[in-house]
Specification:
TIM Barrel, 12 strands, 13% strand, 8-stranded parallel beta sheet, two-stranded antiparallel sheet, alpha/beta, 43% helix
């Protein structure tokens, strides 16, 4: 099986599983506790049906939309995800180049393997930065200032990770950054010699954006859960978010908004967007899925800010349903990380090509000439 044989999420997942050591594969694949929310994120899309209109002379549909001040070619972009060099040596650079090729947004995590400046040098496409607020406030200021100098288009503050979710797969596999080769994990790494060769013959793993502020995660191996609990500020509040919005002074979203009340408050502090997200089911297990919340939030504030659904997207029809429910666009993480692990930049390009074709084809089948035609009349929820 190779990239050309990958037509859907599960194909990329299977190929990534063959190539990645178990601790790294399961870091992408897993969620918190019993993984109820992880699975619900995708299952939620099946609770409603699309309603097409016929004979609308669609022709070539317009897939474009505008988010974070940038027009993008389709209403889907790459979510911010950490440590991408663990999946492919080019990591964030590969993802950014693939996104640029399809004229959509690449999003960078604070915990990226490559720096703000390195990625800005390889891609002129639209870019979003995801900010984690650390206890060390100088990290926040430094990241915002560097993103400004590098001409990133937008920023989002992740607000659902004050403490780490209970990711039991990571406990079992002993996943750390940098990877720690223990007796328990050695066999898994030894069975993936291709990954091991690339890991030791390419750039040394590091958390490039914060390595000058802390050794943990770069030179001192840490589990992601321990890093979050030690480094992130559990006392982060609305004033901290408002400070970042004012300092950034460009399009800004809160990532992790799940309630109407919080969406309204995001407007009050100056956000231009929200990302409805439960962190891919990796934090609060038993919480609602993003799709479950889109309609209520859109009905309340959809005319006042951009709404991005983040989580559970596997198919072009999922994107159409999200837009019909009131989202401006969608973002996805697991799908493109599996494609990155399966085939590097070409894998991500293959995934984006598949999704673009699915969105286009299904818009024609829906009788929609543009994404603006995807409104509440195009969707019916089941009892």
């Amino acid at each position: 099986m190779n990239i050309k044989d990958c037509y859907n999420f599960e194909d990329f997942r299977k190929l990534a599983k063959k190539k990645l050591p178990a601790p790294i594969f399961h870091y992408i694949d897993g969620g918190a506790d019993d993984e109820v929310t992880l699975n619900r994120n995708t299952d939620a899309f099946n609770d409603c049906d699309l309603v097409p209109n016929i004979l609308n002379s669609v022709g070539e549909p317009d897939l474009s939309t505008t988010v974070f001040g940038r027009k993008i070619s389709m209403p889907l972009f790459l979510s911010p995800t950490a440590m991408q060099s663990l999946y492919d040596p080019d990591g964030d650079k590969a993802s950014a180049r693939a996104a640029e090729k399809f004229d959509t947004i690449y999003s960078m995590s604070t915990m990226a393997s490559f720096s703000i400046e390195e990625v800005a040098n390889v891609s002129s496409g639209p870019k979003l930065f995801q900010l984690y607020i650390h206890k060390d406030k100088s990290i926040t200021d430094d990241l915002i200032e560097r993103c400004s100098r590098a001409n990133f288009d937008g920023m989002c503050i992740t607000v659902d990770t004050l403490v780490a979710g209970n990711r039991e797969r990571d406990h079992r596999t002993g996943f750390t950054t940098p990877p720690k080769f223990t007796l328990d994990s050695l066999l898994s790494f030894a069975m993936r010699p291709g990954w091991v060769f690339k890991y030791f013959t390419n750039k040394k793993f590091e958390l490039a954006n914060i390595k000058n502020k802390t050794d943990k995660g770069t030179n001192i191996a840490k589990s992601v859960m321990d890093y979050i609990n030690e480094q992130y500020d559990p006392a982060m509040n609305w004033k901290d978010a408002e400070y970042c919005i004012k300092k950034w002074n460009k399009p800004m979203a809160l990532k992790g908004v799940m309630s109407v009340e919080d969406a309204k408050r995001a407007i009050d502090i100056g956000c231009t967007a929200i990302m409805i997200s439960n962190h891919g089911g990796r934090q609060l297990d038993g919480s609602r899925s993003p799709f479950d919340q889109v309609k209520a939030i859109s009905d309340a504030v959809g005319d006042k800010l951009e709404i991005i659904l983040d989580g559970g997207v596997r198919r072009g029809t999922h994107v159409l349903k999200a837009l019909a429910a009131g989202a401006t666009a969608c973002s996805f993480g697991k799908a493109f990380l599996f494609s990155l692990g399966a085939g590097g930049q070409k894998g991500v390009e293959r995934l984006l090509e598949n999704m673009q074709k699915e969105i286009r084809r299904n818009m024609i089948l829906m009788g929609c000439k543009s994404v603006k035609d995807l409104d509440a009349s195009k969707i019916i929820y089941r009892d």
